[in-house]
Amino acid sequence: MQTINGVGTTLYGKREVNTDGSFIATKWFVFFLLPIIPLGSYRVWQGKTEMTILLFPGQETQYKMVPVPLNFRQIIYTYLAIYGVLILSTVGAYYIIGLFFT
Questions:
Q1: Contact call for residues 27 and 13 (beta carbons, < 8 A)
Q2: CA 45, CA 26: separation in Å to the nearest integer?
Q3: What secondary structure does DSSP assign to 66-77, as a single string?
Q4: Residue 33 contacts by C-beta under 8 Å, 6 or more apart in sequence?
Q5: Residue 26's closest CA among 65, 82, 81?
Q6: How far is CA 74 from its chain centroid?
Q7: In the chain, which ranges are E strands?
Q8: 32, 6 Cβ separation under 8 angstroms
Q9: pLDDT at 76 over 80
């Protein structure tokens, strides 16, 4: 998974967390980091985190992902959370600007 300038694929969500630390996440095609199309759901296990020193200092975490059936509940919640916040913030900004310029 990779995004370039906010366009590409990424994981969103964290549902059905097991005692072993694994969880279900959905892989999305994103445009400017906004989820557009769900590509699949996966059970994700976090692997070990290693320090990288050479070209780009920082940490690199490895993950294990196993495909599972699409988690429609997670898809709906992701759409509602992301686009709900966008709509509410747009309406709020429009209202605030209207207060100052009327």
A1: no
A2: 13
A3: EEE---HHHHHH
A4: 3, 6, 10
A5: 65
A6: 11
A7: 3-4, 7-15, 23-31, 34-52, 58-68
A8: yes
A9: yes
